[in-house]
Amino acid sequence: MTKYFLLLVFLFVAANTWAGDTARYSINELRLKYQKASLDEATAKEFNKQMSTYDGKDPLVKAYQAASEAVMAKYVWNPYSKLKHLQTASAMFQEAVKLDARQSEIRFLRFTVEHYVPRYLNLSGHIKEDKKLIIESLQEYPASGLSEGLARIMRDFMLSKDHCTEQEKKILRNINI
Fold first, then answer.
1. Looking at residues 137-154, what average pLDDT do you find?
2. DSSP secondary structure, the chain, as one string
3. Domain layout of the chain by residue ranges
4. For residue range 71-97, what is the model confidence (pLDDT) as tens digits?
């Protein structure tokens, strides 16, 4: 009986810890903060401060933690500090992908960062593989598990500028979201 009681207590504590973590790091809220952080320095600093305290293992939250580091590189003037933020982000993205390699939102976040990092820094080595997974995930929509809003954001971003080849853009334009 004592074993079962201890198991129930452990499961209750673990569930409450996880639920508290989820509440503190709502994915929808993180998405909005990341978008705002890319446009506003004060929001970027606040977002980075919030994410710097995360020490959990949720792969998607870890990816947003990486994105918060990457966006800070935009707002620091010192080249060494910029590089440090990008290297930290790269390591965090690597950890997030290791935790969940098929999660297309993680790959999308990493793609959005790596696409804009100068190639000579050698921190953009995953663009092709991430783009492939993103496009596959969008082609599988809605079975891929992406929400309609996120799928639309991903597709529209991939269609903008020089993110994809004309052939890839043709595929993306034919996806009904």
1. 96
2. -HHHHHHHHHHHHHHHHHHHHHHHT-HHHHHHHHHHHTT-HHHHHHHHHHHHT-----HHHHHHHHHHHHHHTTT---HHHHHHHHHHHHHHHHHHHHH-TT-HHHHHHHHHHHTTS-GGGS--TTHHHHHHHHHHHHHTTTTT---HHHHHHHHHHHHSTTSS-HHHHHHHHT---
3. 22-117+124-173
4. 999 999 999 999 999 999 999 999 999
